UniProtKB/TrEMBL annotation:
Record flagged with keyword Electron transport: no
Name under which the protein is recorded: Alpha/beta-type small acid-soluble spore protein
Record keyword Iron present: no
Gene3D superfamilies xrefs: Small, acid-soluble spore protein, alpha/beta type-like
Record-level Gene Ontology MF annotations: double-stranded DNA binding
Pfam families according to UniProt: SASP
InterPro entries (UniProt xref): SASP_alpha/beta-type (IPR001448), SASP_alpha/beta-type_CS (IPR018126), SASP_sf_alpha/beta (IPR038300)
Family, per entry: Belongs to the alpha/beta-type SASP family.
Amino acid sequence: MSGTSSNKASVPEARAALNKFKYEVANEIGVPLKEGYNG
């Protein structure tokens, strides 16, 4: 990792996988996420 802080995924392909994972986890625990802004 570089010394700079960033919220961008280091590997471009990982972004879609992480996004999918985020929605799967939210769904499992009952958090109603929607596309776009989720606070």
